[in-house]
User: Which sequence fits this backbone?
């Protein structure tokens, strides 16, 4: 089974048309059509229903699509093995949530010679599962399962962010105590940040009200709209002020993990890359200095 034929099939199946697949693959439409025809002839099966509105998979096509993802991933893994072992050119794909990509990994790639060739940006809940496909390393604040190799990368402070008008709740304090926020909403992302905040808030009686949203940036936008306080690790936006979150006098933090498959062909290289990321974050903490709620932030 030719890899190019399989790749064209997967792209047409995903996009629903030959023209869209040709544009993504940067080849002509007749070339895509011929590759699909070759694959169908090789298998002796029709893989698509050809309709005026586009291409839809037959039952055989759906089965091949499910299997084809694994085959393409194996092709990529094989290429990675050959480059790593015989040409000294490892290249890795990393899965992470958007906030981790924006605040941690893109600066890391820009400032170092790390062999990362792409970032697969997905929700935190899906990051670990990506390691079972064509992803080499996962970086997330959710604790990896026991069957993965993992390395703690950093302890990241969770910040309480809100509008300048909300700063009086904390007075002159340099931290955001959750005890003072029982009468308002705490808005958290569905990541390790949300897990940590929910656990911390559960120690209070009564516990603050918590609203979970899809991402830290969403929490920030709602806080800027006056709907509560965002508890996030992202850099400040929308004119929000920030102070470190605390509960019962203790800081609220999350652990950022790197994880990878125990049987990965380049496990040693991935461990070294994870250690490099840990060292880089120690020297260049992405959360950096925060603008607290002071007179300048209210102007």
Assistant:
């Amino acid at each position: 089974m030719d890899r190019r034929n399989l790749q064209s099939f997967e792209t047409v199946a995903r996009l629903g048309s030959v023209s869209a697949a040709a544009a993504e693959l940067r080849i002509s439409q007749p070339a895509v059509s011929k590759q699909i025809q070759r694959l169908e002839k090789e298998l002796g099966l029709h893989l698509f229903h050809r309709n005026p509105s586009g291409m839809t998979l037959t039952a055989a096509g759906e089965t091949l699509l499910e299997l084809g993802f694994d085959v393409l991933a194996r092709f990529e893994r094989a290429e990675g093995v050959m480059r790593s072992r015989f040409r000294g050119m490892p290249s890795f794909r990393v899965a992470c949530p958007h906030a981790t990509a924006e605040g941690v990994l893109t600066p890391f790639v820009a400032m170092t010679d790390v062999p990362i060739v792409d970032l697969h940006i997905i929700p935190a809940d899906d990051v670990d599962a990506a390691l079972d496909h064509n992803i080499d390393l996962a970086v997330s604040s959710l604790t990896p399962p026991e069957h993965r190799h993992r390395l703690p990368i950093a302890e990241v402070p969770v910040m309480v962010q809100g509008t300048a008008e909300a700063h009086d709740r904390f007075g002159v304090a340099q931290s955001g105590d959750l005890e003072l926020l029982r009468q308002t909403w705490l808005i958290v992302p569905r990541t390790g940040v949300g897990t940590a905040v929910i656990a911390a808030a559960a120690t209070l009686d009564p516990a603050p009200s918590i609203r979970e949203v899809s991402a830290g940036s969403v929490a920030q936008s709602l806080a800027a709209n006056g709907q509560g306080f965002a508890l996030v690790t992202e850099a400040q936006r929308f004119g929000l002020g920030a102070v470190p979150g605390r509960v019962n006098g203790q800081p609220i933090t999350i652990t950022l993990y790197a994880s990878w498959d125990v049987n990965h062909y380049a496990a040693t290289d991935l461990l070294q890359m994870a250690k490099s990321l840990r060292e880089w974050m120690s020297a260049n903490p992405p959360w950096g200095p925060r603008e607290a709620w002071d007179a300048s932030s209210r102007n």
